[in-house]
Amino acid sequence: MNNNQVLSLKEQVALVLRELVEMAKLGPGKLLVVGTSTSEVVGKRIGTSGALEVANDLLAGIEDVRSEFGFHITYQCCEHLNRALVMERSLLEELRLTEVAAVPHPRAGGSMASAAYRSMEDPCLAESVEAHAGIDIGETMIGMHLLRVAVPFRPSIRYIGEARVNTAYTRPKLIGGERAQYVLEHSDQEKNESHLCD
Fold first, then answer.
1. Cα–Cα distance for residue pair 40/131, rounded to 1 Å
2. What pLDDT digit, counting tens, does each position of 47-96 carry?
3. Which domains are seen in the chain, by residue range?
4. Is the CA virtual torsion 175, 173, 151, 13 positive or negative?
5. 3-class SS letters over 86-153
6. Which residue of 101, 110, 140, 174 could cross-link 78, Cys pair, CB 3.0 to 4.6 Å?
7. How many Cβ atoms from other residues are within 10 Å of residue 21's Cβ?
8. Model pLDDT for residues 128-169, shown as the tens digit of each residue
């Protein structure tokens, strides 16, 4: 049940995103993927009642946090555009991603992707990304666009509007077995002299 009525949609998404950014240590050079069902935000079933006004409110809150921390951002389209991602062309070229051709609109791409596309200087769509973190508003399934290994993060509020919100950040794969270490110790050479491994 949503108990966030005191906060505006812009404030709700900014609160959730700020918590995720701090947990994930997002900053310059990092990439966030955002998936949103504005239908779910207004209490309707996903894909049935897209709302550009809602999308613009959410976009404003997300942009406030992005401009503060300096990470890159991409917005997932709906299934009708194969969950392609809206981003600035400069980012697509920097990451050497595969571009796909479409212009998202509320009935194919979704209201959030449509609003994001129209807010950018030189927007384009990428086929896929491997993002460092993600926020999923309305259970739109962003996992396909996260780096491995994804770690669920539960923000302090669990709804934005009427939509359930989930977030995740990622970490490198841990390799090795019981002898592996993941933090450099100054004296590890001395400690491991008797257990050398060619």
1. 23
2. 889 899 999 999 999 999 999 999 999 999 999 999 999 999 999 999 99
3. 9-195 (3.40.50.10360)
4. positive
5. EEEHHHHHHHCCCEECCCCECCEECHHHHHHHHHCCCEEEECCCCECEEEEECCCCCHHHECCCEEEE
6. 110
7. 22
8. 999 999 999 999 999 999 999 999 999 999 999 999 999 999
CA distance 164 to 143: 16
- φ and ψ at 37, to 5 degrees? -110, 105
Distance CA 174, CA 172 (A): 6
Q: Rounded to an integer, what distance in angstroms lies between the CA atom of residue 82 and that of residue 140?
A: 12
3-state secondary structure of 19: helix
Cβ–Cβ contacts within 10 Å for residue 60, how many?
16
At 182, is the pLDDT very low, low, confident or very high (cuts 50, 70, 90)? Answer: confident
Q: What is the largest CA-CA distance in the chain?
A: 66
Q: Return d(Cα 94, Cα 25) in angstroms, integer.
A: 21
* Angstrom distance (rounded) from CA 46 to CA 52: 14
Average pLDDT for the chain: 93
